[in-house]
Structures are given as C-alpha cells and as structure tokens.
Design a protein that fits this description.
The complex is a heterodimer.
Chain A: E1 2-10, E2 16-25, E3 30-34, H1 41-49, E4 56-61, E5 64-66, E6 73-76, H2 88-92, H3 101-114, H4 130-143, E7 148-152, H5 160-177, E8 180-184, H6 188-194, E9 197-202, E10 207-213, H7 225-249
Parallel strand pairs in A: 3-8, 3-9, 6-7, 7-8
Antiparallel strand pairs in A: 1-2, 1-4, 4-5, 9-10
Helix pairs in contact in A: 3-4, 4-5
Chain B: H1 2-19, H2 22-27, H3 29-52, H4 64-77, H5 79-111, H6 113-127, H7 135-142, H8 146-170, H9 174-182, H10 187-223, H11 230-239, H12 243-268, H13 278-286
Helix pairs in contact in B: 4-12, 5-6, 5-8, 5-10, 5-11, 7-8, 8-10, 9-10, 10-11, 10-12, 11-12
The chains are: A alpha/beta, B mainly alpha.
Protein name (chain B): ABC transporter permease
Pfam families (chain B): BPD_transp_1
Subcellular location (chain B): Cell membrane
Chain lengths: 250, 287
C-alpha cells in the first residue's frame, strides 16, 4: 500500500541521511522504525510526508508517486505543534477547512470525545498538559481520515505514565479507521508494544539493518519472555552498529 | 527516573508560575498604582506648598495650581481643542502613512529573499539618517505646511514598523509553518491562517513603538513653523515667556500619548487572548 523505492536523501552539506531504502508497508499495518540518532529515521518520515524531496527514489501510495504533502498522509510530530491562537476544537478542525461547517464540527466533536477532552473544546493550547496537547495533535491528524499516519517520536517528550497512556490511546484510535501507521521512535519497548513489524536502521549512510516481525498477542508489555527475547534481538543488531559508529567517530 | 520526573515536574512548574508575578501578588494592582503615584504627586504637592509659602518664586517652574488654571483657560477659550485637533490630525495622518509603508515593505522583505536582498540594505541605510535631518529637504520639496509635517512623521513611524514586521515574519516558527504545509495550505492560506496570527503580537509591539515615535516627530514637525498644534503652544510659550503654557502642553502630550497607546492595546487585546504570557497566567489564578 505504501511503497518506498530506493529512497535516498543527501543534504546540501553532503550528509547522506538516507541511501537506497526500500520498504513495503501493507494497509492497516503498524511499522515501527528504530535506530540511533542520525540514522535517517526522521528524514525518512519527512520524505513520506512530502515535506522534503528525495535525492533519488520515490514514495508510492497505492502505486501513485507522491512528491508533495498528500491528502492521504497525516503526520504527528515530536512536539504537539498546536496553533496557539486557535482553541483546542479549532486546532483539531484545522485540516478540515474544505468541509461544510456542520460536518467539520461533527467530526471535531466526535474526535474530542474520543480523546477524552470534550470539556476542553474551547480552551487555549497553553492551558493543556503535554499529554493532552499531544492527544489533540493526534486527533488533528486523524480527523482528516488519512490512510497513512506518520508519527515522528510522538511520545518521546512525555513522562513514562503519560507515554504508556498515549500508546494505549493510539492503538484504540487506530482501531477506529485502521490507517497504515509508520512510527519513528528511539524507544525499542515502544516499538515492540505497538508495531507489527520493526525496521531497525543504521547510520552513515542511513539504511535498513534488519526487519523483524512482532508476532505477539496484544496488549503487550515488557517483562514477558517473548517480548524480552525480541528486545534482545534488536539490541543485538543495534549493538555492533553503535560500536562501529563510535569507532568511525573516534 | 522518568516516572519520577513526571511526578515532580508539574509541581515545579506550578511553583515557578506562582513566583513570577510576585510583585503584583504582594501589593495588588490598586496598591501598585497608588505606590507609583506617590512620587510625582508628592513632588507636585511639595512644590505647590513651597511656592505658596514663598520659599520659591515659581516664575520659571509654575506650581501645579497655575498649570491647572492655564489648562482650564485654554479649554474654555476653545484654543485647547483647536491645538489638540491639529496635532491629532497630523499624528493620525503620519502614523497611517508610516504604518502602511512600513507594513508593506516589511511584508515584501519578509515574503521573499530576493526582495529582502534588494530593499533591506537601502532601508537600513536610510534608517541610519536621523529623521530630523530630512526637515530642510522636506520643506524645500513640500513647502512649510501640512505635507512636509505629515511626511516627517510618516518617515519616523515607518522604520520601526518595517523592522517589526520583517522581524516578526522571519521569526515565525518553522515547525508551525510545516503543520500548514502538511495540510497542503496554499501560499495565500499559509499567509492568512498561519503567518498573520503568528506575527500579530510582534506587530502590535511595533505599532506601539511607531505611535510613540509619531508623537515625538509631531513636536519636531510643529517646531518647524506651525500656527496651531500643541508644538506651537510650546514654541509660543517659550517666545512669550509663558512657562505654565509650556508645561500645560507637555501634560496634554503625556495624556494623549498614553491614551492613544492604551487605545491601541485595547483594540488588539481581543486578538491576542491566546498568548501564553504571565499576565494571562495571573488572571487565570485570580479569577
């Protein structure tokens, strides 16, 4: 459904953020992309979102190549990035300006109820906690009913309780319309809790080191033998990469 | 560790927010106002008493009662209204022209790097010239009457507006603009739905700075020959040796400057309710 074909990105500074990355993601699949900093995970997401142009290769959605932000693709960033001059409700409805008012308001109201913030509709973003703001950002992306939702380390700035709460929330929201999810994270446990497949990336230049299926029943939590075994596998792949990077840097 | 941070962080944040407006909390808004008035009112009262007691003549620095009497006389004869109207009209015209020019140039320079490279160096160069230095040229070009006065005020107002507009546009958060792009906004939609509201707080500050300069330059403009206006009252007071009239005009300037600034702030306040400032945090705590 989502196909990345030989995707490469070299920045004007000469940094090779991505080199020849190919990946197929199926409809309604949840893929987590993990790796250390500088391995091109965020670059990858920006290319799929149409916020950057690849130096080579292409991004296809249902066979259609995309070069600019696409209506079928939504994105949630590491920070909520709410517009501070819009109320919570009007932030959620931001991407729905093309819809008739009644439908827009109905969708926003449903989304607000879904994220448990119905009584915050008229608040300003500055009045929200970090977790609430990120839930609003999720709702803003989801009300546009994207077929692909990209998440760029969406919970990394939150504390552990809020993060676990939002991971659960994300799965519940995902179940409503079952979009394809591509989640970039540096948290291996988060990847294993959420994803059907984990893509491990390595830097210099950014490329895929391994792809691991996660065949565990949901809900998942760290501590079970199978979960920890998978975590060990990923760490085993990342370990040598980290050492090589350190050696190159030295 | 991070779980612990989650528990501690909100408490710290709350403490910080409480500490910030400590001044206002300790004294209360009304008491702050009274405290601020103690010095000027006390000085005025002392001077009045000193003159009445014969300790000072009050010839060059008239006591408050004389200034008040002068103001009342000016008001009753209709002169005050005449002069205030003339000065207000000049400030309004000059401010409007200056704001229009500064905003347009700032938007142009902010919207395109090419335009910025073309006009910014020249404008920065012109800005380095003290605006009063233009006066002789403006008089030669535009004559001694209204046109040269309004132009001088407009030139003085335009630069801070230009700088404020350009600076505000350039400092708009790239991350917020990206949200707009990810929702496929056109350039025009980006400008109206993201840039305009994002720029507004800085722009209001620039307008206030510009208005302040407008009041400054109207005096300079009226010094260069005027038969009416508050600046004329100042010159007239000096030439005829009427210090009370000079101080009265100064008081009127202060009141008008403060009033027009307050008007600007009040007009923009409904558009800026969303700002994450300490005054909002204080208002939320108290009411």
């Amino acid at each position: 459904m989502l196909r990345l074909e030989g995707l490469a990105k070299t920045y004007p500074t000469g940094t090779k953020a991505l080199a020849g990355l190919t990946l197929d993601v199926e409809a309604a699949e949840i893929v987590a992309v993990v790796g250390g900093s500088g391995c091109g995970k965020s670059t990858l997401l920006r290319l799929v979102a149409g916020l950057g142009r690849p130096s080579a290769g292409r991004v296809l959605i249902d066979g259609e190549p995309i070069a600019a932000p696409h209506p079928a693709v939504g994105i949630v960033f590491q920070e909520p990035r709410l517009l501070p001059w819009r109320s919570v409700a009007r932030n959620i409805g931001f991407g729905l300006a093309h819809l008739p008012r009644e439908e827009r308001e109905a969708r926003v109201a449903a989304a607000l109820a879904r994220i448990g913030l119905a009584d915050h509709a008229r608040r300003w973003p500055r009045e929200l906690s970090g977790g609430q703001a990120q839930r609003v950002a999720l709702a803003r992306a989801l009300v546009a009913q994207p077929r692909v939702l990209l998440l760029d380390e969406p919970f990394s700035a939150l504390d552990a309780f809020t993060r676990a709460d939002l991971q659960e929330h994300l799965l519940a929201l995902w179940a409503d319309t079952r979009p394809t999810l591509v989640l970039v994270t540096h948290d291996i446990e988060e990847a294993l809790v959420l994803a059907d497949r984990v893509v491990v990336m390595q830097p210099h230049p950014g490329r895929v080191a391994a792809v691991l299926p996660v065949d565990l029943p949901r809900p998942r939590a760290p501590g079970t033998a199978a979960f920890d075994a998978l975590k060990g596998d990923i760490l085993a792949i990342l370990g040598p990469i980290r050492r090589t990077v350190a050696a190159v840097a030295a | 560790m991070s779980a612990l941070e989650g528990l501690i962080a909100p408490a710290q944040e709350g403490a910080e927010k409480r500490a910030l407006p400590a001044r206002a909390r300790r004294f209360g808004t009304l008491r702050l106002f009274v405290l601020g008035a103690v010095l000027p009112l006390g000085a005025a009262l002392l001077w009045e008493l000193a003159v009445r007691a014969g300790l000072a003549s009050g010839r060059l620095m008239p006591p408050p009662s004389t200034i008040l009497a002068t103001l009342v006389e000016l008001a009753r004869s209709g002169d005050l209204a005449l002069h205030v109207k003339a000065t207000l009209a000049r400030v309004a015209a000059g401010f409007a022209l200056g704001v229009a020019a500064g905003t347009l140039l700032g938007m142009l320079a902010g919207a395109s790097g090419l335009a910025r490279a073309l006009i910014d160096p020249s404008l920065q160069g012109l800005r380095a010239i003290p605006s009063i230095a233009w006066v002789p040229l403006f008089i030669l070009w535009l004559g001694i009457f209204e046109a040269s006065k309004v132009t001088l005020i407009a030139v003085g107002v335009a630069f801070p507006i230009y700088l404020g507009t350009l600076g505000a546009i350039l400092s708009v958060d790239r991350k917020i603009v990206e949200v707009g792009r990810s929702f496929r906004l056109t350039r025009l939609q980006l400008a109206t739905r993201i840039l305009l509201p994002a720029v507004l707080p800085h722009y209001v500050v620039a307008l206030r700075a510009g208005l302040g300069l407008g009041w400054m330059f109207v005096v300079a403009a009226e010094f260069m020959g005027a038969s009416e206006g508050l600046g004329y009252l100042l010159v007239d007071g000096q030439q005829l040796g009427k210090p009370a009239q000079i101080v009265a005009a100064i008081v009127v300037f202060a009141v008008l400057g403060k009033l027009t600034d307050a008007l600007l702030v009040a007009a923009s306040a409904p558009l800026l309710r969303w700002e994450d400032t300490d005054s909002h945090a204080a208002a939320a705590r108290e009411g």
